[in-house]
Amino acid sequence: MDGCRIVHAITRLIDRDVLSGLLFNLGIPHLRMYEGYPWRETWIGKWLTCQKIRRFRKLSERQRGLRTILRTMQRLATADVEAVKQGVGAIAAKWLVKDLYKDHCSPKTAPITDEYSFWYSRLLTHWTNLDRRISIEFPGREALILPTRLGNCIRSFEYYPDREYGIDAVTLYPRLIAKIDKDYAAVIDDSKTSLDFMINCSTLSLLLAVSVLLNGPGPAVFQLDVWPLLVWGFELLGLVVLAGLAYRGAIIRASSWGETVKSAFDLYRNALLPQLGYARIPKSKLEERNLWDKVSRQILDGDALTGPRMEYEEGP
After folding, report:
1. Res. 119 pLDDT band, cuts 50 70 90
2. What mean pLDDT is predicted for residues 40-63?
3. In 10 A of CB 195, how many CB atoms?
4. Least crowded by CB within 10 Å, which of 46, 67, 80, 303?
């Protein structure tokens, strides 16, 4: 019995409802497999993680360099572009020409009196795009980086509440769901469903590719019939390409899902405080971060050695 017949036999034996339930219950382990958690300590996982860390360091260095150049340009506050170049250094000037004028744009195209504004606006746009790219593609610290792009994309928005508000998202998100409007909760679920669909498509395409590879081109190999060999090769290549495209689509869907999750914390975090017993709304960013950090630690770790980490507060 060849590979295709085995697959057909298995699908006949499994009831449709049972298969749906199996896919639903294996959704989290399936997603974690694509994120890289189960195999991150293997040699391939360590190698991929090192590659991602190098990429993160490179982008971070460029971000810091851009920030330094922008601050230097602000201090110079002059329309003389030559003075700007001397202030930031010849290396920075060469780097600017290399990265900012890939579209064959030249500083000569700008009026002489507007060259400072021209350089500054280009740099600021480049720095903004780079900062956004780092925040979307990486969790922010090297110790949190995972072997896959999908894993880092998901982990990035998982740690967004901690970066912005001091909230442990994994601990408080199940409690936050109760305060989210039903319509917005449906938007979050739709984004997650779209991600699951892409991941399932990628997995099924890979399984079919393996099945086609094991099944082989059949007697055409011995008969030297070119057409069946070409069909077999195109089928195998098409399934592999489809799996890759579905994986790239999953990264895009994960980013969209992350935006909805981040927005949920932005919009509904204050509504959760009274439900947890802390009715006072913070009046500053620092106060909010200290408050949520203590609330998260109280829920996650319990009392400290000296007692509760923070007492309930009455509203104003």
Report:
1. confident
2. 92
3. 25
4. 303
Given a cut of 60, whether residue 280 has pLDDT beyond it is yes
Instruction: List pLDDT tens digits, range 138-192.
Output: 987 888 999 999 999 999 999 999 989 999 988 899 899 888 988 999 999 999 9
SS (H, E, C) the chain: CCHHHHHHHHHHHCCHHHHHHHHHHCHHHHHHHHHCCCCCCCHHHHHHHHHHHHHHHHHHHHHHHHHHHHHHHHHHCCCCHHHHHHHHCHHHHHHHHHHHCCCCCCHHHCCHHHHHHHHHHHHHHHHHHHHHHHHHHCCCCHHHCCCCHHHHHHHHHHCHHHHHHCCCHHHHHHHHHHHCCHHHHHHHHHHHHHHHHHHHHHHHHHHHHHHHHHHCCCCHHHHCCHHHHHHHHHHHHHHHHHHHHHHHHHHHHHHHHHHHHHHHHHHHHHHHHHHHCECCCCCCHHHHHHHHHHHHHHHHHCCECCECCCCCECCC
Which comes out higher in pLDDT, residue 232 or 249?
Answer: 249
